[in-house]
Amino acid sequence: MKSLRAISFLVAVFASASAAFAAGSTGNAFYGDPPDDRHPWAIHDQNRPQPKVVAPLPVSELEQKARPPADAVVLFDGTEAALAKWVSDKNPNEPTKWIVRDGAMECVPKSGYVRTKEEFGDCQLHVEWAAPGKVEGDGQGRGNSGIFILGVEIQVLDSYNNPTYADGMACSMYGVNPPLANALRPPGEFQYVDITFHKPVYKDGQCVDPGWVTVFCNGVLVQDRAQLEGPTGHRARTKPGPLPEKGPLRLQDHGNPVRFRNIWYRPLSLKTWPLPAQRPLSAKATAAKRKELAASIRNDAARKGDNAVEQMLRFAESLVYEKDDATFKKVEQMACAYAASVKELPADKLAPKKDEVKKVGDAFKYLAKWNIVPADFAPKTDIEKLIKAQGWDKKK
Which of 8, 35, 182, 250 suits 378 as a labelling partner, its CA being 20 to 30 A distant? Predict the structure, then answer.
């Protein structure tokens, strides 16, 4: 009887909550692969600390350092003729549809990735890129592209006053390692990026050197011998493994007219020792960090008493980092109350809650996928049935 009264109270709270539900400004919970025993953060984790903002070096100083050394292979020098060194990534037998404008190679949205005819492996690479001067979109939708070396992406994004998840910011090793600092210039201005890349080394099927990458952005160190973990990807955690001996440089078409110029590389053949400093944490350190993150998220959830939906999801998010019976029971109680509240709403009151209900449904689906809640978690089943009954599961 006591638990029924508690649920009835929570139903009333949810029924009176605002229909609008605002997601975190730096990413979405319940999105990428969850933490594991070596990584305390999820992929694209909104709880991962944001890099500090650091003023870039003056352009005059950067221009001096950006000139190709005598032994560099120039991949793009700003001329129309240089575009012949690049082809369509989807069909290397076709020329790229990207264009040259004002000395820069510009992405034509929806034309596809572009790649070099030249192939190489370990390298010192210099790339200058500029996001569109006209700011459109936010987060990952603003000035997005990528620099791919053997399947490892160094992110290109307009991260100037534009919050997003830390491992997706400009100069992150995408989905793996956030930059140490945000040293970007405003949109429309060129960013000077220098990369040192060493692929993993395997001998007799065993890794003898995991490989690493160092990145400078506008003269500021943003990746410090960060250890590679295999090809990068969206939402999915990288898996350690060998990379090709060599391959083309690829630039991403993500739907934004990002510009690139002054692209050159120097092949490298020798490893630099000792091994990288930025490695995945030990299992013990990871467990401690996950426990700390879970506590922080629960504390944040406790402060969200004015928004029952957001509070419920924040408590649920803490379970991704640490299993806790008391928190699970709290989430279960709140979720049962939420499902009951939306099921009782008349059609005209339910319709405005479409986005909120789908977001809650997606969260429970994620939690069930990773065995954080049971597959037959009653609130998940109830909300899925409601979404299906309303036709909200159909893609337009």
Answer: 35
